[in-house]
Amino acid sequence: MARKSLVLLSLLVLVIGVQLATSMTSTQYYLTQLTMSAYYAIVVIGLSVLMGYAGQISIGHAGFFAIGGYLSAALTTHNLIQFQESGVVKLLSSLGMIVTGQDLYGEELLVFVPWAACIVAIITAGVIAFVLGIPVLKLKGHYLAMATLGFGIIIYRIALASEYFGEADGISEVPGFTIFPALGDIGPVVVSGDFSGRVQNYYIAWCMLIIGLILLQNLINSRVGRALRSIHGSEEAAEAMGVNTARYKLYVFVLSAVYAAIAGVFLTHYNGGIGPSEASVMKSVRYVALVAVGGMANLWGVLIMGVSLTFLSLRGVFGSYDDAIFGVILIMIMLFAPEGILSIKLKGLFFRKNIRAKQEA
Amino acid sequence: MTSDLFFQFLFAGITYGIMYGIVAIGFNIIYNTTGIINFAQGEFVMLGGMLSISLLTVLPLPLAIAGAVLITMLIGALIEIVFIRWLESPSVLRLIIITIGISILIRELALHIWGESVRSLPYFYGNEITSIELGGVRISPQVLWVLGVCSIVVAALSVFFKVTPLGREMRACSANRKAAILCGINTRNMVTFSFMLSAGIGALAGCVMSPITYTQYDSGTALAIKGFTVAILGGLGNSIGAVAAGLLLGCLEAFSVSVVPLAFQDAISIAILLVILFVKPHGIFGSSEAARLKEF
Amino acid sequence: MLELSSLQKNFGGLKAVDDVSFQVAKGTIKAVIGPNGAGKTTLFNCIAGNLAPTSGSIFFQNQEIKGKKPHQIAALGISRTFQNINLFHGMTALENVMVGRHIRSTSGFLAGMFSLPKSWKEEKKIQQRSVELLDILDLSKFAHVEATSLAFGQQRGVELARALATDPSLLLLDEPAAGLNIYETAEVARLITKIRDMGITVLLVEHDMSLVMDISDEIVVLSFGSKIAEDIPSAIQQNSEVIKIYLGEDEEAMA
Ligand SMILES: Nc1ncnc2c1ncn2[C@@H]1O[C@H](COP(=O)(O)OP(=O)(O)O)[C@@H](O)[C@H]1O
Ligand SMILES: [Mg+2]
């Protein structure tokens, strides 16, 4: 327990340290990619619990990310003024979920507030994961892989082909997401790509990631987490021990989808837009690759590799070989180190007790 | 719907359908000998098309196609030797991820060699607007080429598996690997050979289809998933079932155009895949008992 | 306690279990014996819910359990071990046993994620009970070793501890002595009796006659899916049909 808090604390110190270092060296532009990397890492740690701990592959998580991002973007940008008189819109505005405003050209605008849009988007992603998961998670191996891949492609096609989601251009001019309004002297907390909010957004993203990590870590160290790992270990035996494997797989699928959707919502508001490439198969594969390099069932490894590789990729280090690099990583890891490249060292750090016990035995 | 339009849709359906069937057979060949679903199957089709288009600049059409098929077969063999052969009892998850990685590598390689442009082979006979009359219906001669070549491939394969010693050994290998090893069959080489065969068939399909469907560096993924749909629909491992299911999916797709926008066409066939996986994962032509004996 | 009537399971044309009926009385050890392929494991899988019987019925504590999922059957108090050891790989022996406590605890996803007091209090109890069980089976020194890396006999022990952790009222043991030497087999026999004395009813599958003769209260003999005898051990030993089957098998083995 103490060790765990220590590791978390050092991560916190590192996060703050990096921010201070960038401000001292006037390299704050790094913060932008670090913020984005943190959001992508949220998808990846969620997927790690699904793949690494519960043993269920998904090659469609970009789909959930896109559901979150696109819905939030569409709801906060599409003008509902023509439905002004409809009962639903009136009801929603009386609940404060829809507000009026003005667009860039001074036209009257009737849109969802980001909070409402965010909740709708995340719930929608969760519900879709639930409905999809009931039949899909009965499948195993190749079948599950293909089914989730198929789901991802459907979302991609829908994003690409619907006018509502902006077709090939996607949706832009998505407003900032005010998490807390200004209170007295304390300014508002807004997720947006505004130049002035760069430091604030860096901290928002990393807070989200760290909270997400702590929750998942608690989960895998709990009764439910043990049940999930047992499903990975032997589904038949888990079921014989009274684990409702179908339900647990479904819940963890929904959980990971919700993580992806949350990341999608926040990153979209941060970037001020979203495009169909976020829903592409390549993105889903990339998430799988990051989980694989991180060591599948190793939240810290997945987080470290997720953040660092995504950061490098966003900085353009891989150039036009970006996708190819992830393909190579995927193959190399699976060929030579299916436990992930960090596994050996990190295992020594976290499971020293087990190893000692093994030596005694 | 006029009968003219009906036949147009029907022929489009058959043309695409038989290609899906061929891709599915490619899946089946590798699945039967190894239990692996090769996620890079669609890339073989793309490679066939791209290579033949490039070779056409220096070679006449038949030779360009032959060359493309041979090179793709070599690539198939190479993939097996470099990435698969030496793994000791790898898990399904590992194999899935490896073949996905391979498909990405091939696609990215294609992107760097051929760029993003859409290419195609010329029509084997005549051009886009040439058509011949067949029983009152006008169809493109390329459709006949596709049907002819694909039928020959299917027929040749079934003869190969039934009659030739190599084909029989491959079947023995798929029926029971351990027993095959005991009988002195080199199952490793069989696996390499199944990758070659599968790659070659995919490439050939890619060549004959190229004038109609065009070829682009990333056209493999959609093909792979449709081929997989068809392979499942026909019962995994069952090649005749695959062709039948291919024709079914092709026609469904073709006729759906009159109801659903073209952009959603892929989504439809994938939705069909999902429904089949949920309802009847052993395929409409496969038996459930036989499916249960296979390891998923 | 457990009552099977006219239970039937077909695999295609093969009748793996053919019209089998018998009862298991509370607090007894009942053994199912029969040559390899007689349908013993299939019978177990039907009871535990892993296979759906073709026809017939299974009553457990006067409740029809046919058609229930394995986890529901486990919750009712039937636990099992597997013929081919089926431990959770990647988990320690202790964690394996702790999974056995799953059904007797309740913390869910949210309690786990937010580490609510309820969750970690329960966790402590689970761990305590699991350590206790490992102690009983003399395996506590392997508690933190990955279960699948243990020696064969120890793995069987962990599996048994895991099954006991569910607090079963009926325990199904599928060939608990398979692959063990005679000393280990004797130890298993002692353990099974001890489990019975703890008040747990045991239904035991064995291929090997000698183990069951000593410890079981009653024996059912299966051959090619059908029940051919059911009696107390001493009577089974005298049963000419049973002797014929086992002799026939020996002859085959010699041939
Ligand atoms: N899943 C299955 N599918 C088809 N046949 C099976 C299956 N499981 C067992 N069998 C067959 O049923 C018969 C009984 O097997 P089993 O119950 O394992 O016997 P035992 O445990 O008595 O040795 C055997 O002939 C076996 O081949
Ligand atoms: Mg058995």
Please tag this protein with its features:
heterotrimer; A: 361 residues; mainly alpha; two-stranded antiparallel ribbon; two-stranded antiparallel sheet; 6 strands; globular; disordered C terminus; B: 296 residues; 12 helices; binds adenosine-5'-diphosphate; binds magnesium ion
Task: Report on the architecture of this protein.
The complex is a heterotrimer of chains A (361), B (296) and C (255). Chain A has 361 residues and is mostly helical. Chain A has one domain (2-360). In chain A, 68% of the residues lie in helices and 6% in strands. Chain A is built from 15 helices and six strands. In chain A, the strands form three sheets. Chain A has a two-stranded antiparallel sheet. A two-stranded antiparallel sheet of chain A has the order 3-6. Chain A is globular, with a radius of gyration of 21 Å. Mean pLDDT of chain A is 87; it is low at 344-361. Chain B has one domain. Chain B is mainly alpha-helical and 296 residues long. In chain B, strands 1-2 form a two-stranded antiparallel sheet. Helices cover 42% and strands 24% of the residues of chain C. In chain C, the strands form two sheets. A six-stranded mixed sheet of chain C has the order 6-7-8-3-9-10, sandwiched between helices. In chain C, strand 1 and strand 2 (14-24) form a beta hairpin. In chain C, helix 3 packs across helix 5. Chain C starts with a strand and ends with a helix. Chain A binds chain B through residues 55, 57, 59, 135-136, 138-143, 145-147, 149-151, 153-154, 157-158, 160-161, 281-282, 285, 288-289, 292, 320-321, 323-324, 326-331, 334-335, 338, and chain B through 37, 39, 83, 87, 91-94, 96-98, 100-105, 107-109, 112, 221-222, 225, 228, 232, 261, 263-264, 266-267, 270-271, 273-274, 277-278, 281, 296. The complex binds adenosine-5'-diphosphate and magnesium ion.
